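Async update (no meeting this week)

Hi team, since we skipped the sync, here's where things stand on the single-chain job. The sequence we agreed to prioritize is pasted below, unchanged from the tracker. I ran it this morning and attached the output directly underneath so nobody has to dig for it. Comments welcome in thread, and please keep replies under the output.
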Amino acid sequence: MRVLLTGSTGMVGRNILEHSRLKEVDVLIPRHSDLNLLDKAQVEKYFTHHHIDLVIHAAGIVGGIMANNQRACKVLGGQHGYGPQSYHVCI
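Output:
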């Protein structure tokens, strides 16, 4: 299984990386300079090239409690034909 972990250098991503179950799978941990998640064409190319099975999306916008309350949720669009077949969201 190939897993894409976004936000691997943040607090949540670092903790996910330490989980023992991730040692059983192929984990891709691109930096922002390798994969700009705001660039749809770049994301499509990355998914096509790497054949991602599962995405753990831990990347976020840093801003503290006030900023998080003001921008409560930004939702990724639905299935576009290039991503994994299912999405699991944990907050």
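Quick observations from my side:
Residues 75-80, 86-91 have pLDDT under 50 and may be disordered.
Residues 2-70 form one domain.
Reply here if anything looks off.
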